[in-house]
């Protein structure tokens, strides 16, 4: 059978339509995960906390608001949140407010946070959140929250231990850390019920109070800045000056506890701090089995063959016996144009490292805010090299940086301009490029404080 030219063209056109339809129908848009952002409501009294939530589109990275969100975080000034037990439960740490009604909490008395809590949420279908119960730490001014890899225990870093209100040489700080120590911070440990998600307090089996009962927290040296769980140890960045405002900065050393994943106990592995040779530590982060300490003070080093002066630096370590062992490659400079690094992300394939820099406290445009980017080389030795196109733009004052569950997109939530910024991760170059066919910036109802992703969508 022979076709005319018109017939051939018609047949080819029909076949092309079938092929195009088949291809496009296979590229189905679907939600690959959820992005949750904690923050406060602009122009509200008491810094009321909220949780915003977004569907993450697999094909474009576009964020679409979850219908049931935002909702109240269960308190004022939420600063951290974690998911656990197969993403069935979300816990939000709300710092509370001081006597003046704001979140600039420090010390004891009128400047201390009141009504701080941990609010538990059940994660339901389509990323919905339902409030469950409220729990309370043992100390004053809680500000950090982590969960162990088993999902059995949750830990809270309290800037001030309860005894700080009436310090003495016979208080629990002194009993745990030495007679000369009359004030300290603490870690409150909770066991997580694997069925209900309910938290129950883990008491300190190592230290007995003056009345003969175990104390209900684990003391750490005064003025902590951040903490992390790695290789069976809880490491607290501490040694900062006595704060007169929040957030707390100025970490100088690390305090180690040995951690038991079977009962949640923290045991002193060495009754001394480890000086790091820094003065302005802002964060300690565990990423791909490497401990990173971020330090907001100037450094001049020879880096990738050039002499670089940077406003801040990154110190990588491994953990051995509760002590930090410096990587042989030494310290690395932050991008010279950025400042105040507060969070670090190693992307899922372990090839690239990104550092979120908050910059200075400026509402709106903030030239020191942005994301520094590095290529990561682990052989023959640990090494970072600046990516050619870094630094990458962000919103003003990023507070966190996360990778989506499909390993395609990077998001950060911003304090000063109340936004979420998303970028496409080029797997070949490590560059963070503008999103493909979608907006890259999403407005929030108020300043962002933390973000996390959930890959469970059923």
Task: Describe the protein's architecture and organization.
The protein is mainly β and 458 residues long. 6% of the residues lie in helices and 44% in strands. It contains two helices and 35 strands. The chain has helices at residues 5-26, 172-177; strands at 31-40, 48-57, 63-65, 71-76, 78-84, 89-94, 117-123, 129-135, 140-147, 153-160, 185-192, 199-202, 218-220, 226-230, 233-238, 253-259, 266-268, 274-275, 281-287, 290-295, 299-303, 306-310, 313-320, 323-326, 332-333, 341-346, 352-357, 370-377, 383-386, 398-403, 409-414, 419-425, 432-433, 441-443, 448-454. The longest helix has 22 residues, at 5-26. The model is unreliable at 1-25 (pLDDT under 50).
């Amino acid at each position: 059978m022979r076709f005319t030219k018109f017939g051939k063209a018609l047949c080819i056109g029909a076949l092309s339509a079938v092929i195009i339809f088949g291809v496009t129908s296979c590229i189905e848009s679907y939600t690959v995960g959820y992005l949750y952002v904690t923050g406060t409501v602009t122009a509200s009294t008491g810094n009321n906390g909220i949780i915003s939530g977004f569907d993450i589109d697999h094909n474009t990275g576009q964020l679409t608001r979850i219908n049931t969100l935002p909702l109240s975080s269960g308190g004022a000034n939420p600063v951290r949140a974690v998911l656990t037990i197969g993403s069935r439960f979300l816990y939000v740490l709300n710092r509370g407010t001081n006597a003046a009604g704001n979140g600039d909490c420090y010390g004891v008395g009128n400047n201390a946070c009141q009504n701080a809590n941990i609010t538990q949420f059940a994660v339901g279908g389509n990323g919905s959140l339902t409030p469950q119960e409220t729990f309370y730490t043992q100390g004053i001014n809680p500000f950090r929250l982590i969960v162990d890899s088993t999902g059995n225990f949750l830990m809270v870093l309290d800037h001030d231990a309860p005894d700080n209100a009436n310090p003495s040489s016979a208080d629990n700080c002194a009993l745990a850390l030495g007679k000369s120590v009359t004030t300290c911070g603490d870690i409150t440990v909770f066991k997580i019920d694997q069925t209900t998600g309910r938290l129950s307090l883990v008491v300190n089996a190592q230290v007995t109070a003056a009345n003969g009962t175990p104390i209900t927290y684990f003391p750490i040296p005064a003025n902590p800045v951040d903490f992390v769980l790695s290789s069976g140890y809880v490491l607290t960045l501490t040694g900062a000056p006595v704060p007169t405002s929040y957030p707390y900065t100025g970490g100088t050393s690390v305090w180690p506890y040995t951690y038991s994943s079977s009962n949640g106990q923290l045991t002193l592995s060495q009754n001394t701090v480890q000086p790091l040779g820094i003065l302005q530590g802002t964060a300690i982060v565990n990423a791909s089995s490497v401990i990173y300490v971020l330090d907001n003070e100037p450094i001049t080093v020879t880096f990738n063959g050039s002499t670089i002066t940077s406003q801040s630096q990154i110190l990588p370590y491994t953990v051995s016996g509760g002590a930090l062992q410096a990587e042989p490659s030494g310290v690395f400079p932050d991008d010279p144009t950025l400042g105040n690094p507060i969070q670090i992300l190693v992307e899922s394939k372990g090839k690239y490292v990104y550092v979120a820099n908050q910059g200075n406290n400026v509402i709106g445009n903030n030239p020191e805010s942005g994301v520094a980017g590095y290529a990561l080389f682990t052989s023959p030795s640990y090494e970072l090299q600046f990516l050619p196109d870094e630094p990458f733009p962000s919103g003003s004052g990023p507070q966190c940086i996360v990778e989506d569950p499909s390993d395609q997109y990077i998001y950060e939530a911003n304090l000063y301009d109340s936004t979420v910024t998303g970028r496409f991760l080029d797997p070949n170059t490590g560059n963070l490029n503008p999103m493909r066919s979608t907006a890259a910036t999403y407005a929030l109802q108020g300043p962002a404080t933390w973000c996390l992703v959930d890959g469970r969508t059923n």
